[in-house]
Amino acid sequence: MALATEQFILNIGPLHPSTHGVFRMRVTLDGEIIQDVEPVFGYLHRGLEKLCEKHTYKQNIPLTDRLDYVSAINNNWPYVAAVEKLAGIQVPQRAEFMRVIMGELQRIASHLLAVGSLMNDMGIFYTAFMYMFREREKIIDLLEMVTGQRLLYNYMRFGGVSMDFPTEFLPALADFLKIMPGYLDEYDTMLADNEILLSRTKGVGVLSAAAAIDASTSGPMLRGSGVKWDLRKDSPYSVYDRFEFDVPVGQNGDCYDRYRVRMEEMRQSLRIIHQAVEQLPAGSEKTSVPLRLRPAKGEVYTQIEAPRGILGCYLVSDGTEKPYRCHFRAPALINLTVLRNLLIGQKLADAIIIFGSIDISMGEVDR
Amino acid sequence: MTTSVDYNDLASQLQGQFGQGFTPAEDYVEVPCAFIAKAAEYMKNTLGFDYLGMVTAADYADHFEVIYQLQSIKTNSSALLKVRCPKDKPFVPSLANLWLGASLQEREVYDLFGIEFTEHPHLKRIVLWDGFKGYPLRKDFKGKAYGASD
């Protein structure tokens, strides 16, 4: 006589070490095969877009830090760029280079966290993670030197950045640029033929290029699937057209490729910082902008390549000192669109790794 | 470098396909509400806009506006489309059957603006809970934090 079986519903999260914040997946299981997934959002919803309508333009800059709190500097960028475009503010050349240097440092810090916690998810508990946090700490020290903060920097301003590099920053950055490639080699030595990494990521969570485009994914998700699309290259904002760098892409679109793309992007970011430091012009770090800024009526959409993908800001001004509408295109939320398709038919143990390889930040998903 | 499409050209092409009502502006084309899914399908299949960048909405005094950003990865060009819908009948055809990428974004617009996307396969609240009263991003929203008594 056959045993009676039934489907099993499992809640992963909202408080689970692998959900990187407060995210819940309602998973329907048949044995350990996933039959259906329903992601549940909203545990960190703070109504940021509504708050933006209640504050003045300048008061909103620190709010944008709180979108994706592990890459705060990149989050300031589309918002200040949108306001600068609306109000016709010119950014000094030095400030543009400073934004690039700080933004790329932040990208490395963000990718280190993403890769480190992915290793945790797959069972390389805390060894790789602590190695990567050792270097992330060095970057955060550098950012602290400039901004005085360690997580939410509130760094960019309309028409520039909040403060110039202190005298000790550039020598410290040069030291960091000298040692960092060695550390990246060290990770590669440690992980290149790591049995846990290879057996648990190769061929797992395959996303085809067509599916990645169809689901509007961006960042390492899209490039891991082999689509060469990086706004820094394809639609250069700020001064990104002056640097030489490659856009790494994956072949198979599996979790391993997404991991490789992030590792390669860190090397490319180092290349960009090298060139930006060499070309860093003298001059002022910001222009003076009226305290009570009232951009002309109109609307604008700007986008940048944040560590997690295309981060956009749609801003409508009605001529007063508060935005009429401010929307952020959140790459982490949109990358999650494919989660259901990636998970169905996989084993439960792989679900955590596929989810980790998407690399979300709940502050940005829920806003 | 991403180039923006010529909106006069785009509007006349769409008019040739679907009839009157496509109004070009400086940096977008306004599409009649009923035609947005068909216009987007035409742009995807014939004009090569393969990537849906962004979907959002805005609340104005006498109408809602839904804003779409379309991108072509092959030709590196982008286009902004807008749809107006009346406040008493906020129904807009969904693009979620055309691009999977629209599904979560449309759910977010539905959640915060109360604009219903017809033929969306799974339209329900996303960041707020079922049973939440009102749509916070509407300008006339009165929550407890905004002065409502209860």
Q: Describe it for me?
A:
The complex is a heterodimer of chains A (367) and B (150). Chain A is of the alpha+beta class and 367 residues long. Chain A has a single domain (44-366), classed as Orthogonal Bundle (Cytochrome-c3 Hydrogenase, chain B). Chain A is 48% helix and 13% strand. A three-stranded antiparallel β-sheet of chain A has the order 1-2-3. In chain A, a hairpin with a 2-residue loop joins strand 2 (24-30) and strand 3. The mean pLDDT of chain A is 89. Chain B contains three helices and eight strands. In chain B, strands 1, 2, 3, 4, 5 and 6 form a six-stranded mixed β-sheet that branches. A two-stranded parallel sheet of chain B has the order 7-8. In chain B, strand 7 (91-93), helix 3 and strand 8 (116-118) form a beta-alpha-beta unit. The longest helix of chain B is centred in the first third of the chain and has 12 residues, at 7-18. The N and C termini of chain B lie far apart (51 Å). Classes of the chains: A alpha+beta (367), B alpha/beta (150). Chain A binds chain B through residues 41-42, 45, 47, 49-50, 211, 213-217, 227, 229, 234-236, 241, 301, 303, 310, 312, 314, 316, 324-325, 327, 329, 333-334, 336-338, 341, 366-367, and chain B through 1-2, 50-54, 56, 58-59, 67, 69, 73, 76, 80, 99-105, 108, 112, 126-129, 136-137, 141.
Would you spell out the secondary-structure blueprint of this structure?
The complex is a heterodimer of chains A (367) and B (150).
Chain A: E1 8-12, E2 24-30, E3 33-40, H1 48-54, H2 61-65, H3 72-87, H4 93-122, H5 127-147, E4 156-157, E5 160-161, H6 169-191, H7 195-201, H8 209-214, H9 220-224, H10 231-234, H11 255-279, E6 298-306, E7 309-317, E8 323-329, H12 331-335, H13 339-343, H14 348-358, H15 362-366
Antiparallel strand pairs in A: 1-2, 2-3, 4-5, 6-7, 7-8
Chain B: E1 3-4, H1 7-18, E2 23-24, E3 29-31, H2 36-45, E4 51-59, E5 63-72, E6 77-86, E7 91-93, H3 102-113, E8 116-118
Parallel strand pairs in B: 1-6, 3-6, 7-8
Antiparallel strand pairs in B: 2-3, 4-5, 5-6
